[in-house]
Amino acid sequence: MKESFPIRLRKLRQQKGISQEVLGKALSVDKSTISLYETGKRKPDYEILERIANYFNTTTDYLIGRINDPTPYDVDESMKLREKIKAIRENKQLSKNQLAKLAGISQSYISDLEAGKKNPTIEVLEKICEALGITIIDLLKFPATSEDVLQELSPDLLQWLELGQDLSPEQRQALMHTIKILKS
């Protein structure tokens, strides 16, 4: 069974041997807010989720149950979430209005998010990622600029990417499976 955010938060807090009050102070939220998180009656926005992940030296993906390994992975911390969403949206040639319609949220919310005026909840972040055709992991690993990606990739890998663009998700999965077999 997949562990939920409330269970993982409680488990991490208890493993660290701290009270809800101590965690609340560390995160600059009230003890009652931690209690609501742990009972599933309230969900943190993305900013608080990041603070929780940083406090426990884990990832947001672990906290929300997307992955089972609590060990943090290397993420380019220099690029803020809002900049990543904007870069991916522009890469996909979507206007703010188009993304808003696809995600089922208001265009003003997308504008405020990209301007740094709003911090999305996990639910909103999932809607945005789904509308962009990516996972939250993809979003967190997205590099600052496409030049950063190009500099890191060898010419043969760039050719693979170009060829893979036109493949369906099923074809990409089959290709990944084949590559894994070749590597083993």
How would you describe this protein?
The protein is mainly α and 184 residues long. The chain folds into 3 domains: 5-63, 434 Repressor (Amino-terminal Domain), CATH 1.10.260; 81-146, 434 Repressor (Amino-terminal Domain), CATH 1.10.260; 153-183. The chain has 13 helices and no strands. The relative contact order is 0.09.
Dominant shape: globular
**Domains, number:** 3
Alpha carbon gap, first and last residue: 29 Å
Which regions are unreliable across 5 or more consecutive residues at pLDDT < 50?
74-79
- Secondary structure tally, helices: 13
- Structural class from helices and strands? mainly alpha
CATH class category name of the largest domain: Mainly Alpha
The ordered H/E elements are HHHHHHHHHHHHH
* Overall average residue pLDDT: 81
Can you give the helix content as a percent range?
Answer: 55-70%
Q: Please provide the count of β strands.
A: 0
Radius of gyration: 19 Å
